[in-house]
Amino acid sequence: MAELPGCCRPCATCLLCLYSCRWIGAKKEKRQGLRTTKCDCSWFLFLFCVFLFTLVWLYFAIVILNDFHNFNEFIFKQRKLWLDWSLVLLIATAVLITYSAVLLVLALCLQLCGQPLKLHWVHKSLLIITALVVAAAFTGLGIKWAEEWRSARISLQATGPFLHLGIVGGMTLLAWPLASFFYRSRNTGLKVFLLLVYCAVMIAVYLAPLVITSPCIMEENQLPPKPALVGHRGAPMLAPENTLMSLHKAVGCDVQVFETDVMVSADGVPFLMHDEKLIRTTNVQAVFPERASLNSTAFNWTDLQQLDAGSWFLERRPFSTVQSLSAGDRNQASKQKIPSLEEVLEAAKQSNISIMFDLRPENHTDYQSFVNATLDAILQSGIPLQQVLWLPDGFREQVKQQVPGVQQVYGRKRLQNEKEPLLHVNLPYQDMSSEEIRQYRQDNISVNLYVVNQPWLFSVLWCAGVSSVTTNACQVLKEMKHPIWLLPSSTYLMIWIVADCVSFLMILWAFLLVNCLQWLCSFSLLSPESETDVLLTKINSLMQE
Q: N or C: more exposed end of the chain, with fewer CB within 10 A?
C-alpha cells in the first residue's frame, strides 16, 4: 500500500508507536505483512463512537453548569462535605474527551499514511472504561437530575445554528480519510456501504436547519425588553446568601426583586433561612454542638442572633467570585448575622426594592401561625404592600383577605378553568417553552423563571420575551446590554446555504485530490521499475551481441 507524499517514515513510525504501542518502523511493519483487518475496523468504529459519546457528555457538562450550585448543596446535605464539584466534572470530562480525541486523530493520520490500524489492548481497555464511565454519568443524570434533559433541549436553541456549522465542518474534514480509505481498499462492498452512509449523514446535516428553531432568530426591532433581575437569596456570588449584605449587593446590581426564604423561630420571629438546618450557612456546630442537627425553627430568636452567618461564605467559597472580594467586603461578610424579616423589609423599603419569599417548611404543624407571624411583620414594617410578592400556596385565601395589596405569585401554570386570572407566575426555566412565554406575554401575565445564571440561557429567555429571571449571577447579567447573538432569518438562511455549498465543494475536492495523489504515488513507484527493466534489457542485448 503506497504512502501519500509528505508522510515520512519517522512520522509513520511515531504514529504506530502511539496508537499500537509498537516501536516498529513503518517499512518493517509493511514487510511483516500487517494489514488492517475487519476487527481493526470495528475497533476504529468503536473509537469514533466513544469520541462522539464523550463529546455529547462534554456538551451536557457545560449545560448543567448553570444549575451545578444546587448539586453542590445537595451533596453537602447528604455528606456534610462542601466542594465545587463542577471542577471535578469538567476536569474528568476534559481528560476523557482529550484521550479519545488524540486516539482518533492518530488513527486518521495512520489511515492517511497508509499504515495498519492495530489498536493496542491497553487502549481498547481504556476506551471501554471511558464508554462505561460516560454511560454511568448519563444514567445518573437521568435518574437523579432528570430536569437537565430539558435544560439540554433549551440549550439547543442557543447553540443549534453553531452546532450545525461545527458538524458540517467536522464531517467535511472527515472526507479526507474516507477518500483515502475509499481509493485504497479493495473491498467494494464496504466502500459502497461507507460512501452511502456518509452521503446520507451529510444530506441530513445539510438539511438540519429546517428543524433548528431559536427565539434569537429574529429581527433587531422585534427583540423584547431586557428581563428584570430577581436576586436569588440576594447576590450570593458577592455576599453570604440571605443576609442584609446580600440584599445591598443585589441593589447595587440593579436587581428589582430580592428573592428569599422565610422561617419562623420557636418564639414567633420570622427570619431569613433557606435550609431546614443551620449547618451549611452558620457556625451552629461550634455554638450549639448538641443542637446543631435540629431544624431552624427549633431555635428561638435570641439563640439565632448568636450565630455567625457570614464566615462560612469566606471559608467554603461557594462561588469562585469569593476570591476576588475586596478586603472591606471580606470584613463585612464575616460580620453578617441572620436577619429578621422585619430588618429585611425595612432595608427593602429604604432601597425601594421588592421582596419575594417562600415560607418554610410548608409541612410544619404550626404553619398557620407562621403565616400569621409573617403577615404581622409585613403590616408592622410599613412597606408598601405592592412591593411584597407572596409565593406560599398555604392559606393563600387568608392572605388575600388580610393583606389584599400583596401581589400573589403562583408556582404553577394557569389552568383552563381558572376562577381568577393569574398575574404573576414563578417557575423553573425548564418548565416553560418559548411559545408559552410568548403567549403569557401577550396575555399580560408576568413570568419569572429561575434559576438563570449563564449568559447563553439569559439570552434565550430574553429573546423569548420572559418578564424577569431569578439569578445568582446578577453582577454578570447586569452587564449584558444585548443577547449574546441575534440573527435575522434572512442572514441565517444565507449562512446556511453558503456553509453547505462550501462544504460540498471541499468534499469533492478531497476525493479528487486524494485520487490524484494515489495516482502520483502509483506512478512514482512504477516508473523507476519500468526504466530499470528497459536498462537491463538493453544491457542483456549488448552482452549477447
A: C
